[in-house]
Amino acid sequence: MARKHLGLAGAGAALVVAAWAVAMGVADAAKTPNVSGTRHNLSVSGTGTVRAVTEAQVCVFCHTPHGARTDVTPLWNRQSSGATYTPYTSTTLDANDIQATLDQPGGSSKLCLSCHDGTLAIGNVNVLNGVTNATIQMQGTATTPPGTMPEGSGAQTGFTRRLGVDLRNDHPISVTFTSALATRDGELRPVDAQQRWPAGTGTTIGIRGPGFKPHLPLEPTGAGALGQVQCGTCHDPHLLETDPANGNQKFLRQNRFQQAQPAGGTTFDAVNDIICLGCHTKELGNAVWAFSAHAHQQVANETYVAAAAATREFPTGLPVWRAACMNCHDTHTVQGAKRLLREGTSTTLSGTLPGGFQTGAASADNFTRAAQENTCYQCHSVAAESAVTGAGAQVPNIKSDFNLARRMPINAATEAHEIGVGAVAGGFNDGTDCTAANTANRCGADMIEPRVRLGVANPGNRHAECTDCHNPHRVIKSQNGVPGALNVTNTNAKAGTHRHEDAAGYTHANLISGVLRGAWGVEPQYPDASFHTMPNNFLLKRGDPGADVLTTCNDTPPSTVNKTACDSKTYVTREYQICLKCHSNYGYDDDNVYPSGNLRPLLGGTGLTPVTRANDARSHTRYTNQAKEFQAPNAHKGAPGAFGTAAGAAATYNNGNNRSWHPVMDVTGRTLAVRGGNAAAWLAPWNNAVGTQTMYCSDCHGSSTGTTASVMPTGNTNTSEDGNPWGPHGSTNDFILKGIWNNTTGANGGGDLCLKCHAAGSYANQGGTTGFATDKGDGHDLHAAKIGRMRCNWCHVAVPHGWKNMSLLVNLNDVGPEVGLTAGTQVRNNTTAAYTNGPYYRNAINKVRVFRSSGTWVETDCGSQGAPGNGQTGRNWMRDSNENCTNPP
Question: Can you give the C-alpha Rg of the chain in angstroms?
């Protein structure tokens, strides 16, 4: 009698369980509790590859009505493994700080692992037909150890049923789920009011009791019988998915895929939401995830190609928005991947499966193979490699840029960057606390890294990860990264990393784009305006803008009042705030010693700009500090001569001089009226609102652009700015620049970096009016006519971020701390060589005796100022054979 009951199967059973499903109000009618039709039917009637040779009973492999174990439930018929497990760990797992370490698997997890860890033979049961310690003859099992769970598609891929005893690549279990955990994380559903019957009244998470059956049941296996996440929280091993269109549902209690557009509310929709949203809210209350580029049905409408869908066991033609969390994560992913990232392992492995999935032998420590970028590359690559349709069009091909000659160091040997900080204390200049002491730090949700992880006190950590610049849960398609209330109009607006219009009247700005939304960054603070002074503090910018309208940031041009209001926001509003967390003394130690010093990051390395380069003689070995260079002091804006001293310049050259900078952090204030220039001296969009517009770091850094354009990557003819990526991922040029920047710049037309914004006809050739007005006419025009050729670095600083003098002009009468000399030191330029001393001087010949405002320069303003120069000025200096203006390099 018992045997017949345990072996219940067939049409009658299907009718019974279907009726049960209706009676119990099962949300998804396609799921029925019919274990006989699932892969967990290990009897001879089973349809899976692992099944008994002759045994017909279905339930006996797990349960027995008599002689069951007394230490576990329900009526368990198997022994538990004696293995010691390596639990999931992560610097963003707040439970590690709260629990100290995750418990060894308990509850249903211990039962599931009795088969799925691969240590015990599947056919070994406690009781079979009254016989104890019986063995059922099986087929399809592993040979090592004999009779155990086979790997299936293998531990090398992550699509495996053999989890092993190393659970670092499996969803954390035995996690005590409390509201304290949810508060600290910031993106988990609070659960204390739902923890257990009879107090529990919620429907989503909690411990089951009479009349209280939450969608995701916790198990009372934690200290004090608190609810814990176990395998049974997400999986019911008896569930049969009857709708083939839903694909393999992995025995999940709720949907493996999103069924309808996420509503963006705080309530879990058991009918339509992916199971992950039952616990991981991802700020749905603010509609952040719902309107992200990876979740919104009008944006993420690309579909999986057949081979990739089959490999991932997705339904054919599954759109990206329905795959949702499963696009990037798999709860049982490949060994070596961190944070359950799908395909997040090193490309040094031996081969690929369809859709780009990496395969290969495990290393001594699998976690040394982590490579976050491969998770992104599964879609963001060339069409032939991408797992989805639309690659290279709607889905930018990022992978190819990272394979260019110069690139961000994204494929480093190890992933030293770690979001969250675990037990690492402090390290944020604004006092932000991401340690265990802070019960609501949300550092994991904001993907914050401590400074030591970036490179402070440990330069070996310096490399790039996709999440350094992008928060994949918050990115939106719109070019406007802070559109206010998230809705379809704002989210599905014109695509592109940011606006690059060439329309008349458009004022270029430095506001974040949609792809940068919700990332974190820093705003540098300065003790004074000197070019030689580094920032002494940084304000941390973090979090998503939510529904903040932010009209004050969108003014073009922004007023001083509005800029202040914008900069007071606690979240990132401008691209440079993201860049400067790595490219400043926030992300590395800096002794502020030049030309090289001993602390800033070294030049050179695989795929990085080398120390010695063709057409670019240098004498420095380290990068510079961009936060130091881009400072835009208010007192130095506008017309020079408005103040009596120039920060960083020697006293002799103070009058009429001021700092200068490219307007990355703020406007220059040098309007056409101030500089007496001509808008035609710039290419669009830089000829609009001259002096009041700002720009991005990525206006100069990124993949090469067309011959004369800074506004569109080469080959991108799509006016929506989809397709080729816009960003500093990689380039054929040193320093990931969009154009040529070396000793020849100024001679190569639109291929030169400078001449993608500054019109070659005005700055490099004769006939233009640039604003460098003199008593003899336009200064650039005069020099082009007299010399016959132009090189930008003859007169301008070789690192053109910002400079101690006006108009980025070098002055060999005042060479100072930037090369380790005393301010005001004069160096001689001669007929054999111009002055080169990195990083700021490259073939420099310019000598200024008096700095003037535009329109007031005269010949005698140029030339040597005393020894060791020849004392000549103006035309005489240019013609004197003792110095090299007659024979420039």
Answer: 32
Listed in sequence order, the residues at least 6 apart from 696 whose beta carbon sits closer than 8 Å to its beta carbon are 498, 510, 575, 576, 664
Dump pLDDT digits (tens) for 410-466: 866 556 666 655 433 344 455 566 766 666 778 888 988 888 888 888 888 888 889
Distance CA 338, CA 168 (A): 8
Nearest C-alpha neighbor of 589 from the set 409, 417, 408, 459:
459
Place of tokens 């291929």: 751
Summarize pLDDT for 341-394 with one digit per residue, the tens. 988 877 544 444 444 444 444 443 444 567 888 899 999 998 898 999 988 778
pLDDT of residue 479: 79
Lowest mean pLDDT among 33-47, 438-452, 592-606: 438-452
CB neighbours of 501 closer than 8 A, spacing ≥ 6? 684, 685, 711
CA distances from 458 to 412, 416, 607, 781 (A): 15, 10, 21, 49
Q: How many CA atoms lie within 13 A of 437 on its CB side?
A: 5
Token pair recorded at residue 304: 């999986």
Distance CA 202, CA 212 (A): 8
Closest by alpha carbon to 389, among 295, 446, 306, 305? 305
Tokens of 420: 């969250």
Token pair of 548 as six digits:
């903040």
The encoded tokens of residue 486 equal 């998230």
Instruction: Cite the DSSP H helix spans in 84-186.
Output: 94-99, 107-116, 179-185
In this structure, what DSSP letter does residue 506 have?
A: P
User: Any idea which residue has 């411990």 for tokens?
Assistant: 207
Structure tokens at 410: 């994204």
Q: Which residues pair with 319 in a beta bridge?
A: 303
Residue 760 has pLDDT above 80, yes or no: yes
Least confident of 129-133, 413-417, 485-489: 413-417
Q: How many angstroms separate the CA atoms of 418 and 889, rounded?
A: 47
The pTM of this model reads 0.91
Ranges 242-246, 440-444, 769-773: which has the least confidence: 440-444
- Are 384 and 355 in contact, with CB atoms under 8 Å apart? no
- Quickly count: other Cβ atoms within 10 Å of residue 47's Cβ: 10
Query: Which DSSP state fits 436?
Result: T
The residues, ordered by sequence, that sit 6+ positions from 59 with a Cβ below 8 Å of its Cβ are 6, 7, 8, 35
- Between CA 767 and CA 756 the distance in angstroms is 18
Query: Does the pLDDT of residue 222 top 50, yes or no?
Result: yes
Torsions phi, psi for 792 (to 5 deg): -60, -40
pLDDT of residue 170: 94
Q: What is d(CA 34, CA 40) in angstroms, rounded to the nearest whole number? A: 10
What is the rounded end-to-end Cα distance, in angstroms, of the chain? 101
In three-state secondary structure terms, 524 is strand
- Cα–Cα distances in Å, from 613 out to 261, 609, 734? 52, 8, 9
pLDDT at 415: 62
Q: 841: which residues sit within 8 A by CB, 6+ positions away?
A: 793, 797, 798, 810, 815, 819, 835
| Calpha distance 308→315 (Å, rounded) | 10
On the question of pLDDT at 642 being above 60, the answer is no
- Alpha-carbon span 328 to 339, nearest angstrom: 10
DSSP code of 237?
T
Of 246, 232, 291, 281, nearest to 111 (Cα)? 232
Under DSSP, the state recorded for 461 is: G
Distance CA 410, CA 17 (A): 52
CA-closest candidate to residue 317, choices 304, 335, 334: 304
